[in-house]
Design goal:
Low-confidence stretches: none
Oligomer: single chain
Helix content: 40-55%
Largest sheet: 5 strands, mixed
Shape: rod-shaped
Distance between the termini: 31 Å
Strand content: 15-25%
Structural class: alpha+beta
Strand order of the largest sheet: 2-1-3-4-5
Radius of gyration: 27 Å
Length: 252
């Protein structure tokens, strides 16, 4: 991506690859999407901005099919990376402030609901610890077991749909970290659904089981709950991190 800074002496835009100052005006040229991004350093003077704006015609003449966008709060991730690399030499970092658009608010709401439903799903799994214990195994009525599996499946399907919605919203928000976290949510939700959908094949029923009463080894149930717990951690923690990060770096 090409970067140009405005030279006051030349009253022209000069290509720059190494550094950027807080009083500079800079242009980031996105040739792939045909967009010219204008960045105004927080310490750039009003007069410099006025002259720089007038000389933008030189850039626009050269790149006639490109759209001009002025960078304000919501800076695209690739532009932000380039900007930080150029400012890094001077130890200055620009704080990211996102605007809480309707899409960002929905992303937060969906993430929060998905997280809560994930915990409810695991609490439903933990209800298995109340099953009757007998001779080192757990005894459960077949109908109650089927209801336990069905409830788990319904909860997973709901938060899977929510994370799919978040995936779509993450592309609109256009932040790499949000996209990655949404992908994790979708993949883990699908994994939970495939796992729990094994139904009666989730456990190797112990000797003495019938079509009405199932006997399940405590160790098998413990391994099942542990696997799900690890999955919930992988699913929930990135989502919670994303929610807190957005709250910290966004404003209405």
């Amino acid at each position: 991506m090409k970067t140009f800074i405005f030279d006051e002496n030349l009253e022209n835009w000069v290509e720059e690859e190494t550094s950027l100052l807080l009083h500079d005006l800079a242009i980031f040229l996105d040739e792939k999407n045909k967009i010219v991004y204008l960045w105004q350093g927080p310490k750039s003077k009003k007069k410099k901005k006025e002259i720089g704006f007038k000389s933008l015609s030189l850039i626009q003449e050269k790149y006639q099919n490109f759209k001009l966008k002025i960078l304000k709060d919501n800076i695209p991730p690739e532009i932000h990376t380039q900007l930080m690399n150029l400012l890094k030499k001077f130890g200055k970092k620009e704080k990211i402030i996102l605007k809480r658009t309707i899409y960002l608010k929905l992303y937060l709401i969906f993430g929060l609901i998905g997280t809560i439903l994930s915990f409810i799903y695991y609490l439903n799994l933990l209800s298995s610890l109340s099953w009757v214990q007998t001779n080192g195994s757990l005894q459960i009525n077949a109908q109650i077991y089927d209801r336990w599996i069905l409830t788990s499946q319904i909860l997973i399907i709901i938060f899977l749909l929510i994370f799919i919605g978040n995936q779509a919203l993450s592309f609109i928000i256009n932040r790499i970290i949000s996209i990655i976290i949404a992908v994790i949510g979708v993949i883990m939700s699908i994994g939970f659904l495939l796992y729990i959908s094994q139904g009666i094949f989730l456990f190797l029923f112990q000797s003495g089981s019938t079509t009405i009463i199932y006997l399940i080894s405590k160790s098998d149930l413990g391994i099942f709950l542990l696997i799900n717990f690890i999955g919930i951690i992988i699913l929930v923690f990135p989502t919670i991190y994303s929610i807190f990060w957005i709250f910290k770096h966004s404003k209405a």
